């Protein structure tokens, strides 16, 4: 299985202004740094490489499989907005569409053929599923969790350890409490 980003999210889920308000910063000297922290927090949480294993903003992806599974196909990076196109390449390398059924209420969403899975696939990478995922409006808990991460990084920018005992800089318990319900466990 491979995932390829087709269309990245537009912008960030947090604006510089709302982040500065949270940080209680009323000057522009740190604007570039705060913008970089926003990008880092989003990168740490969003998409296939983020620890949430979730699309937190609208984005388009391609799921590439070597073959059809015996059961369902899990569509990663919930929440799923739409399945945009599903196709497979037959043994002659000709592109073929097929009909499918999707359970969009599951996280991750699940997909099955409307009848039977096609046979005689080209392999590897013979199945492609283009989909759009992400929240139309990012949940407040995710936005606030990102703000708490950014706040911890902003206040501790020069520290890799705390106090005189070497220990990793903790991610705030508040951020963990806000973000952990959104972690996709069965991706």
Number of strands: 8
What is the terminal separation in angstroms? Answer: 12 Å
Describe the largest sheet. 5 strands, antiparallel
Strand content: 15-25%
Keywords:
alpha+beta; Hypothetical protein yqbg; 2 domains; three-stranded antiparallel sheet; 4 helices; 24% strand; elongated
Summarize the structure.
With 187 residues, the protein is α+β, with helices and mostly antiparallel strands. The chain is 25% helix and 24% strand.
3D structure, described in words:
The chain has 187 residues and is of the alpha+beta class. The protein has 2 domains: 2-55 and 137-182, Orthogonal Bundle (Hypothetical protein yqbg), CATH 1.10.3230; 59-133, no CATH class. It has 4 helices and 8 strands; from the N terminus they run βααβββββββαα. The protein has helices at residues 16-23, 31-45, 140-155, 173-179; strands spanning 2-7, 59-65, 73-75, 80-89, 95-97, 100-103, 109-113, 127-133. The strands form 2 sheets. It has a 5-stranded antiparallel beta sheet, with no helix packed on it. A 3-stranded antiparallel beta sheet has the order 3-7-6, with no helix packed on it. Helix 2 (31-45) packs across helix 3 and helix 3 (140-155) runs antiparallel to helix 4 (173-179). The longest helix is centred in the last third of the chain and has 16 residues, at 140-155. The chain starts with a strand and ends in an 8-residue tail after the last helix. The model has no long low-confidence stretch (mean pLDDT 89).
């Amino acid at each position: 299985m491979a995932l390829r980003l087709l269309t990245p999210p537009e912008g960030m889920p947090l604006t510089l202004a709302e982040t500065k308000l949270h940080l209680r910063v009323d000057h522009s000297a740190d604007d570039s740094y705060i913008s970089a922290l926003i990008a880092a927090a989003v990168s740490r949480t969003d998409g296939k490489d983020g620890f949430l294993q979730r699309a937190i903003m609208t984005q388009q992806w391609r799921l590439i499989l070597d073959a059809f599974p015996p059961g369902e196909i899990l569509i990663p990076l919930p929440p799923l907005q739409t399945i945009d196109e599903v196709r497979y390449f037959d043994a002659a390398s000709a592109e073929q569409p097929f009909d499918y059924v999707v359970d969009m209420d599951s996280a991750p969403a699940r997909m099955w053929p409307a009848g039977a899975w096609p046979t005689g696939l080209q392999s590897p990478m013979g199945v492609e599923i283009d989909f759009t995922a992400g929240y139309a409006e990012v949940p407040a808990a995710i936005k606030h969790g990102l703000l708490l991460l950014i706040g911890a990084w902003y206040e501790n920018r020069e520290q890799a350890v705390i106090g005189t005992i070497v220990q990793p800089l903790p991610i705030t318990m508040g951020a963990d409490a806000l973000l952990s319900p959104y972690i996709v466990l069965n991706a």
